[in-house]
Structures are given as C-alpha cells and as structure tokens.
Predict the structure.
Amino acid sequence: MLATATTNATATDEASEGRNPNPVDIHVGGQIRLRRKILGMSQEQLADALGLTFQQVQKYERGANRVSASKLYATAKILGVTVQSFFDGLAEYETNDEIDNPIVHLAGVNGGVEIAEAFQAVDNQGRAAILQMSRALLSAAARKAA
C-alpha cells in the first residue's frame, strides 16, 4: 500500500512538470531566497548545509520544486528563522492565483538586496534622489518598449 502511495505521488509530481509552479511554492521559495540573501549566503553554501546541489536550491527558490517538510525545517534552522516565517504574507494572496510581492522579487534580482540596503542607509534626501532616478529609468524603458 505504501509503495502504491509513493508511486502515485511520484507520478503526480512528474505529471505536474511543465506546468506553472504553485503560487505557494513560489512564495516559500522567494522567502527562502530573501532570507538567504539577507544573510549574504550563496546558493552553494545553503546547498552544502542541506546536503543538496545548488541547482536544487535554485529550483526550490523559483518554486519549480516543492520543499519537503524535513528540508524546510532544516532550511529554517540554517537560516535562523522559524518554518512559519516562510509563509509570512501568504494569507493576503488566498484569493489570488498569482503572488506578486515586490520585496520577494527584489531579493531575487541581482543587486536587489544591495539596493535595498543602500536605500535604507541613506537619508530622506538620498532616498528621494534614488526614487526619482528609478522613475526616470522606468519611464525611459517604457518609451523604448513602445
């Protein structure tokens, strides 16, 4: 009976390949990535601590692969947070299939954490200048795309 349940679960996981990742998996993966980047830890360092390849950590962070309960627990311990913290902010998306959290997205972009840290480090005048520059860049990109 257990073998059948395991086989069915594997078949279900394989059948879901090629489909869009579940929004909860994307959210949890994004939270893992955010915490890892805040700590200045590389995917390779986290993977080594978990006994995985860095490619597996990449898949977890993208939500392409689900994180098992034991790996989620180990990840929380390594990153110094509770398991629950990976689900923080999820309730606001209960009625939405798409999770669009700009903070999680920022953490996933090269330099995103550094930009956030710099933004926090400058005074209000500096923040206003950064925001003005960002808006100008966004406007230029929109004109170029049109």
Notes: The longest helix spans residues 124-145. Residues 82 and 99 are 21 Å apart (CA to CA). Residues 1-17 have pLDDT under 50 and may be disordered. The radius of gyration is 18 Å.
